[in-house]
Write a structure and sequence with these properties.
Length: 302
């Protein structure tokens, strides 16, 4: 007796696809986990209707997306679910499991681009000055915050940095980004100075286990994403920053401040590790809005 579609989808089809994303295509584990959540939800929907993924038509998928919106799912989340389905069905067609791709010509839900939140230059200075650099952990935190703002790296890239990836002289860091892609990002003189102090004064006392990670915890382990999230929020409170603060806000601040000071968009794209220039262009909307606000407040005939 043939296994129910959901059982086959959950036990073989989906795990095989996720393994391809992780191993063959080199997607980050966080990205694969996001695909898993969206496609497991699709699998439950298939099971509730007795459908097989291989036999779905465009009308079935349109009904699925309508059901998602009907349950209150935001347009952005529905668009992400459709993106997961597109990738899945391309894979199914490639391996011959589907004769055609039912996601073709499906329209994504209209999503208004959300402008990323960023700090002002004054807020950045207050945040950087928040750690107590007379303490080893405070010196470490200052070096980490300076590195994030100087390079715009993602938090996952920051905590995975090793000693060999950092070159204080001439001043750059090699970063392994999404999909295992390597990029070289400059490190400014201020950040290099704090990193040098951290390496000389603080890290030796933390490195009781001879670790390769650049930034270490009090337990002599590599820094984690969760730990750095907690640190940046604590220092943000100390700096009097009441709005939402996260490592990604520092990345947004890095990009926005560069563009405000005349940096080339392609250069910012390369430093951020964006595969598509359109992802970086969101920051030009921010700078245009700020210029408009400045004009309206300062020009006598605005």
């Amino acid at each position: 007796m043939r296994a129910p579609a959901a059982t086959r989808f959950g036990r073989t089809v989906l795990p095989d696809y996720l393994a391809v994303l992780l191993v063959e295509r080199g997607l980050a584990s966080n990205s694969v986990a996001s695909y898993r959540r969206d496609l497991e939800a699709f699998g439950r929907w298939l099971a509730s209707r007795g459908l097989e993924a291989e036999a779905c038509e465009r009308s079935d998928l349109r009904r699925y997306l309508t059901d998602l919106r009907g349950r209150g799912l935001a347009a952005r989340s529905a668009a992400r679910a459709l993106a997961a389905l597109r990738g899945f069905y391309r894979y199914m067609v490639e391996r011959g499991a589907c004769a055609h791709d039912p996601t073709l010509d499906l329209e994504s839900p209209k999503v208004m681009p959300a402008l990323p939140y960023f700090l002002t230059a004054e807020e950045v200075e207050a945040l950087l000055a928040a750690p107590d650099v007379d303490r080893p952990l405070g010196l470490r935190d200052r070096a980490m915050l300076e590195t994030v703002y100087a390079t715009g790296v993602r938090v996952s890239e920051l905590v995975s940095l090793t000693l060999s990836q950092l070159r204080l002289d001439p001043g750059y860091v090699r970063v392994w980004g999404k999909g295992g892609k390597e990029r070289v990002v400059p490190v400014g003189s201020a950040a290099r100075g704090w990193l040098a102090r951290y390496l000389d004064e603080a890290r030796p006392g933390l490195d009781r286990k001879h670790r390769d990670e650049l930034f270490l915890t009090v337990r002599a382990e590599g820094m984690t994403r969760q730990c750095f999230w907690q640190l940046i929020k604590a220092h943000g409170r100390k700096a009097g920053i009441s709005t939402h603060l996260s490592p990604h806000v520092m990345r947004h601040s890095f990009a926005t401040h560069l563009l405000e000071h005349g940096a080339d968009l392609r250069a910012v794209q390369a430093m951020l590790g964006h595969a598509d220039i359109s992802t970086t262009e969101i920051y030009t909307h921010i700078t245009r809005e700020r210029l408009r606000s400045l004009y309206d407040s300062k020009h006598p005939r605005a």
